């Protein structure tokens, strides 16, 4: 590997992206059937399918599937020093955070792209891109994240979010 990053965050992201890229062909599955199955209540419980269904529903603005896939006592680790950062310990707290983020970004926050999904046991690492714009010159958010979901019994029980540019997120979301 050439040009190995020197910071811990960059090294972690480079390592995960390298692993994700090398495993992408074996972990990729189609998301659309999983979302349709989730709506019908017959979702394939494989970690990759659950993560794809969750993220596809988020992209489409479908709140039903994420509510069905997040465990009521999910532990959601949102990184940073901004007003939305910190540990959330229920699906209700996660939805409250996301709703507040949507309002703060004047409803422009969107999951723009799911770049890669890879699986290791019951954990799923997802390389995704978020975008948002603050009206009135408040800034632009365009950041890659790696979300690592732990899945048990067909539910996301834990989410650890890693940001490629935490300073951008902190500046965008503010206090």
- Average predicted local confidence, pLDDT: 81
- Beta percentage is 25-35%
> Quick one: biggest sheet?
6 strands, mixed
Q: What is the architecture at the second tier of CATH?
A: Roll
Radius of gyration: 16 Å
The outline comes out as: globular
Total E-strand runs: 6
**Count of distinct structural domains:** 1
Q: Given the structure, what is the number of helices?
A: 6
Between the first and last Cα atoms, what is the distance in angstroms?
A: 39 Å
Order of strands across the main sheet: 2-1-6-5-4-3
Q: How is the CATH topology named?
A: Nuclear Transport Factor 2, Chain: A
Residues in helix, %: 40-55%
Protein name: Nuclear transport factor 2 family protein
Keywords: Signal
Domain SnoaL-like: 52-158
Pfam family, one: SnoaL_2
Structural summary, described in words:
Keywords: Signal. This is Nuclear transport factor 2 family protein. InterPro entries: NTF2-like_dom_sf, SnoaL-like. Helices cover 41% and strands 33% of the residues. It is of the alpha+beta class and 175 residues long. It has one domain: Nuclear Transport Factor 2, Chain: A (Roll). A 6-stranded mixed beta sheet has the order 2-1-6-5-4-3, with helices on both faces. A hairpin with a 7-residue loop joins strand 1 (70-78) and strand 2. The longest helix is centred in the N-terminal third of the chain and has 20 residues, at 8-27.
